[in-house]
Each structure stands twice: as structure tokens, then as C-alpha cells.
Amino acid sequence: MAAHCYTEVTFTTGTVRSLFGPFVELVKSWSLPDWLVHWGHPGNMAVVLFAMGGYGTYLGFRIRFSDDLEEKANAKDLHPKLLGGMFFFFALGATGGVTSLLTSDRPIFESPHAVTGFIGLALLTIQTILPSLFEGNPGLRNVHGILGSGIMTLFLIHAAFGLQLGLSY
């Protein structure tokens, strides 16, 4: 069984390496400063996490707990836009992280950072679908709030793993 899992990871890694190969070679040809290749992805993702994710989470709590109808209406408008943008930039950022690792000749998909990233994106996918089900099942609003808070916690752990990964080479 373990050999089977290793084969799948190797196949996936090889596939991603071959798909990203031409772009990685292009990035290498730009002769970017090493610090930018190394820390560009985490810098951008930290902005997305704390600015979009942090403020979007705050707005989610305002939707839930504010007594001010105007504040609640504004939060209901901006919350899905900000967190939808966060999801988009995290998905896009994953490609930047893979590119950064490959450009630095580092292994991919072998760190806790990669695992938490995959789990986080999968949970964000579920989180994005939940609001479309609120009308038929209002209890899902509670699930959405709890899951959203859990996802933000996971991404804070993910960021710590990313910092650990970045400092490891």
C-alpha cells in the first residue's frame, strides 16, 4: 500500500514538474533576485490572507452579530466578494508556490504546507457552495460560520508551515 501511495505522489509530482517546466525555465531566464523568487509567494499570500481573509472574516461576524441594518447590508455585499477574491488568489497563489519551489529546485507536495494548502482549498470550495444552500436549509448558516472560522485557523497554521518551509532553505 505504501509503495502505491509513493507511486501516486511521484506520478503527480512528475506530471506537475512537466506541466510547469516551460514556465519554470522562463522564470529562471528572467534572472530575478533570489530573495524575490524565494519570498515573493509568501509575501503575496500573507497580504491575501490578512487583508482579504481577515477583513472578510470580520465582515462575516458583522453579518452575524451586528444590530445595525446598514452595516449588515454592506457586510453582506462585501463579504462574499472579498472571500471569493481570497479563494481566487489562493488558488492562483498555489501555482506561484509550486513555481517558486521548482525554480529553486525544491521538492513539491512533500511538506505540511502543501498538505494544509490542498485541504484549505478543498474546504474553501465547500464553503463557496454552502451559501447557495441556505434558502433550503437555514441551519447551514451556522455550518458556514463555523467552517469559515476553521478555514481561517487552518490558513494561519498553513502560513506558519510556509514560513517554516521558507526558512528551511
Task: Please give the domain count.
Answer: 1
CATH architecture classification = Up-down Bundle
Quick one: overall form? elongated
Mean residue pLDDT:
92
Structural class: mainly alpha
Strand tally, please? Answer: 0
Q: Give a quick account of the main beta sheet: strands, pairing sense, barrel closure.
A: none
Give me the number of helical elements: 5
Name the beta content range: under 5%
Terminal CA distance: 31 Å
Q: What percentage of residues falls in helices of 4 or more residues? A: over 70%
Kindly identify the CATH topology. Answer: Four Helix Bundle (Hemerythrin (Met), subunit A)
Which value, in Å, is the CA radius of gyration? Answer: 19 Å
| CATH class call | Mainly Alpha
Order of helices and strands: HHHHH
Poorly predicted runs are none
